[in-house]
Amino acid sequence: MSVSGLKAELKFLESIFDTNHERFRIIDWKPDELSCQFNVTGEKLLIIHCNITESYPSTPPIWFVDSDDPSLAQVLERLEDVRKGSTLVVNLIFLMHFVIHCTH
Q: Where does the RWD domain start and stop, copy by copy (predicted)?
């Protein structure tokens, strides 16, 4: 994917998940990195980071979270099972689904 295509995808995500979104917010992005905030319970906020390689989307993004919670580590490991070539949108849908089910 071209840099301009990746920027367009990131801007699109930011327009949907802006800083006023109730559950999920894109808090910062660059062409090689994405930082998101997930409001899990109304009080518990998770900051989730994503490194985007130059070979994206054929190489999936690398997701990580600043937490010692083993269930969150499992969530991010499951993202590795998301098919190569999937877009960030697909990754975010899986991420939100897994986080909601693992934290409730």
A: 8-77
